[in-house]
């Protein structure tokens, strides 16, 4: 169950990063409230996951899911662009997360 908490927490990190952008510097009250609620929920789920998962595994995976997800959201919703080198680093991030999981007990 802790892996489910961790994955959902990572996905929620992607959501709050997106709603934070949509809050326009916290001037859009609705998006600001959504950002706060979703980020707190993400933190609570991360805390639940770390009850049994090592922090050396849980935190990088949580951050990685949020980072990769935010890159994808930026590309799809906001028209962001990645250079070929940027794509390479995103692939390295994915490989690093998989490598951490494969080499860490938990």
TrEMBL record:
Membrane topology category: Multi-pass membrane protein
UniProt keyword terms in alphabetical order: Cell membrane, Membrane, Transmembrane, Transmembrane helix, Transport
Regions that span the bilayer: 27-47, 59-79, 85-103
UniProt similarity note: Belongs to the drug/metabolite transporter (DMT) superfamily. Small multidrug resistance (SMR) (TC 2.A.7.1) family.
Gene Ontology CC, one term: plasma membrane
Coiled coil: none
Locations listed in the record: Cell membrane
Record's protein name: QacE family quaternary ammonium compound efflux SMR transporter
Gene3D superfamilies named among the record's database cross-references: 1.10.3730.20
Main location: membrane
Pfam families recorded: Multi_Drug_Res
Recorded GO MF terms: transmembrane transporter activity
InterPro entries: EmrE-like, Small_drug/metabolite_transptr, Small_multidrug_res
